[in-house]
């Protein structure tokens, strides 16, 4: 029997509640400490992908580096309600460069 994995969105209330309509589990948090706790908790479950707002990610280098090379959960940075900080794009670009050996973006 195949395992069914979940997808979660972690960030400020305004940034993550729209994901609920898409069927994602949403976890509104107000600061990086709460987000760290939630990500650590989700990593112990059947959560395969965690969308995290860039604004919260700024204060979470330790947690992001902990799960960076893990198969699960994949932590994907997304712009928050304040707009993009470019962090998510830079992370994806570095991952692609590691995978293919060149900047293709």
Q: Can you walk me through this structure?
A:
This protein has a four-stranded parallel beta sheet, sandwiched between helices. Helix content is 43%, strand content 21%. The chain has helices spanning 13-20, 32-43, 54-57, 61-67, 87-100, and strands at residues 6-11, 25-28, 47-53, 74-78. The chain has one domain (6-100): Rossmann fold. The protein has five helices and four strands. It is globular. The N and C termini lie far apart (38 Å). The longest helix has 14 residues, at 87-100. Helix 1 (13-20) links the parallel strand 1 and strand 2. With 105 residues, the protein is of the alpha/beta class.
Q: Summarize the amount of helix as a percent range.
A: 40-55%
CATH fold title? Rossmann fold
Distance between the termini: 38 Å
- Strand proportion, as a percent range, falls in 15-25%
The biggest beta sheet is recorded as: 4 strands, parallel
List how many beta strands DSSP finds: 4
Uncertain residue segments: none
Shape: globular
Give a quick precis of the structure.
This protein has 105 residues and is an alpha/beta fold.
Task: Compile the SSE list and pairings.
Layout: E1 6-11, H1 13-20, E2 25-28, H2 32-43, E3 47-53, H3 54-57, H4 61-67, E4 74-78, H5 87-100
Parallel strand pairs: 1-2, 1-3, 3-4
């Amino acid at each position: 029997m195949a395992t069914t994995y979940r997808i979660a969105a972690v960030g400020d209330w305004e940034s993550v509640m729209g994901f609920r309509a898409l069927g994602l589990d949403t976890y509104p948090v107000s600061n990086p400490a709460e987000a760290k706790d939630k990500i650590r908790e989700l990593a112990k479950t059947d959560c395969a992908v965690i969308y995290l707002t860039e604004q919260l990610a700024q204060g979470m280098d330790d947690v992001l580096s902990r799960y960076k090379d893990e198969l699960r959960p994949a932590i994907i940075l997304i712009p928050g309600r304040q707009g993009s900080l470019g962090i998510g794009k830079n992370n994806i670009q570095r991952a692609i460069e590691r995978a293919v050996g060149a900047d293709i973006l």
